[in-house]
Amino acid sequence: MSADQIERGKYLANHVALCVDCHSQRDFTQFAGPIKAGTFGGGGEKFGPEMGFPGTFYSPNLTPSALKGLD
Ligand code: HEC
Q1: Vertex 40, ends 55 and 51: CA angle to 5°?
Q2: Which comes out higher in pLDDT, residue 44 or 68?
Q3: Residue with the nearest Cα to atom 37 of ligand 1?
Q4: pTM for this structure?
Q5: How far apart are the first and last CA of the chain?
Q6: Cβ 66 under 6 angstroms from ligand 1
Q7: Domain range holding 57?
Q8: pLDDT tens digits along 46-55
């Protein structure tokens, strides 16, 4: 994979599809809910009925260490 492709992936995941905004833990006591230090892509954020979801879901870990075994 080229450096250009890696940059393109970062752009898509962090700024277009916002995958990492959900797949990281957020501090909603602060304005705009910044990502908590050390949780980038690590999942664990809760999505529950209080947000309108039909159950309780936790975003999974999307970091390479969690995904390396997948095709
Ligand atoms: C609105 C929040 C949100 C966004 C944005 C989001 N996800 Fe998720 N994602 C979740 C949640 C919550 C789950 C867990 C769903 C469940 O438990 O059924 C999940 C599950 C997953 C899974 C596991 C699927 C499985 O079958 O186990 C992967 C992989 C994933 N997301 C990748 C991504 C990628 C890549 C993007 C960006 C293109 C993305 N997600 C964007 C919230 C989000």
Answers
A1: 25
A2: 44
A3: 19
A4: 0.90
A5: 15
A6: no
A7: 3-67
A8: 999 999 999 9
